[in-house]
């Protein structure tokens, strides 16, 4: 009963409004006017908010640009500071500065300022006015801001300031400290207009905004502005940001504040007009209910026509369209394109499950994506998959799946739109196979195929062969723009850079050999054949092949060593022939003279004396022939037996043989050779070498000092090195250094010396591919080093 009464009251109220159209229209006008006022207020708030967002966006963009520029400048200053060694001397300043200027064209100059005096400038041309300027004897403002950089130990920018080399600019100074002591500054110079241009501070860029750049004068404490402005702007009401690196302040102000009222007035007029028109139309609508009914009828007819047009578009679309039951996967509606694509009739497709048409290999991925779609994680799925037609033919299709339910509602139906991509997919597969064949062909070439941009040699491509030759993966090679240069042998970098600079300008094909450091630390010789690739007549890329020529280089080194060895052997043989000729002629001459004296002797005693003298000469001749025979045997032996010998065992055996001499001279022997050291050597040669070196150390000891002989064995560059050191009388190497290993060379007046020992020792060592070296000082001792091959 109560519900019936409420319904009746509502109907009466509605009828009252419908019977009084003008009052209803006026009330509706007041309602719309209130609504328009609310919209105007909201638009005003949005306009102010958008204006603030735009100003904030501009400031953020400029702040990011300036901060990035300051970071780059800091990197330049730091790089320049790293050229200073521990003694405070810059190394390669011009070379490093040139590269920094090339990489940072916005810089006018870079400087090193030891003790506040500008001593190094690059480029010097155009900046001569600043050379030798003492910052601490300059104007007070310069002194103050230079000291500020030192106090903060951070990079600080002076300026904008008039530069001594002309113009207005900014000077960034990074204080440099060596061992916590102030050394000076690493500085950069930027023209002010260049700084504004690179940062995007341009009053001509934005129509409705103006910029101003200021700084507090450290002397006058007044704010100075540096952007010329034809008009006066109230920057007190602007937004601004502060850059502490230079104590700068950047303002942005909006000019056309009256625009909001222009827009609001148009909105007010539009709303007022809309309210009047709406009220008038409502009045007319109420008056003419019949017209309204007729309008509804026409709208119904239009809806029917729209549905008819949609049906025509659906059936004749140039893509496949289907409406699918989301929960069951059954096809509810399909168009002609989809039927033709799948080779089924419409009746055959209806009520088929969409999943039954998908290729089995794509079902798992399709289920994963559809699960995300069904859970609401995505509202639309775009993918490419394979379908199986009625004839069994596999076809590719680009598929878009779109939900037909609103967010938060239960899934009902969804639309599937499909475009045939079979031909395009086949063409893509052919292209992929072609690329794979090319890649395979490149990787079978016995060399590293590579390509890079000509500027800075940034890598574009490198073949898999790089791992076989240098040990690096393709990913490691491509990880750095300077990977190739970083792994060049240090001794080849300068030569190669000069070669490239000279020949790349001529657009010539390059052919260079150099060394690279492989991943395992070994040195690999590379022959690099490079071609300059031009596009539209301009050199753009470099393409080349790096061939491993390490074996060839090693063969060249071996050949040179063999040549040097043969040359040395020839010299020895020639020297040996001179020695043999001289020694035998000397003995023969002595014997002839004695025989002549025997023939002329007048008494038997004289003849016996001459016979004894002849016997002595004959014994000396025999000894000379024996020693010469030993040398010949060493130099002519082709099959010297070499085996692994325990070095320490042979040292102990030699010391035992010399025990009487050791005890007689009270020699202290310090044997530091490890017990497990093995050397590949001939037994007799090793015994002879040890005997000669140790006996010489005993023989040439000093009378005023207890003799000490020390034996050690260390590894040098993969070779075992035996050192025999004594504290004996020593040898004057400046006087006898080139004769010490010669035949018949004695240096200390020892009557027992014959000058054969060291000559034979050197020949025995070199016959087995080793070498011997000597260091000595008079009255301090001598050290012989034997390098075993």
TrEMBL record:
Name one molecular function that GO assigns to this entry: protein histidine kinase activity
Q: Which residues cross the membrane?
A: 23-41, 260-282
User: What range(s) does the PAC domain occupy?
Assistant: 381-433, 510-561
Q: What class of enzyme is it?
A: transferase
Q: Which Pfam families match?
A: CHASE, HATPase_c, PAS_3, PAS_9
Which stretches make up the CHASE domain? 114-251
Q: Entry's InterPro entries?
A: CHASE_dom, HATPase_C_sf, HATPase_dom, His_kinase_dom, PAC, PAS, PAS-assoc_C, PAS-like_dom_sf
Kindly state which reaction or reactions the protein catalyses.
ATP + protein L-histidine = ADP + protein N-phospho-L-histidine
Q: What is its EC number?
A: 2.7.13.3
Query: PAS domain: from which residue to which, for each copy?
Result: 306-377, 434-507
The answer to whether the entry has keyword Cell wall biogenesis/degradation is no
Keywords, sorted A to Z: Kinase, Membrane, Phosphoprotein, Transferase, Transmembrane, Transmembrane helix
Histidine kinase domain: from which residue to which, for each copy?
Answer: 579-789
Q: Where does the UniProt annotation place the signal sequence?
A: none
Query: What protein does this entry describe?
Result: histidine kinase
Q: Which organism is it from?
A: Pedobacter insulae
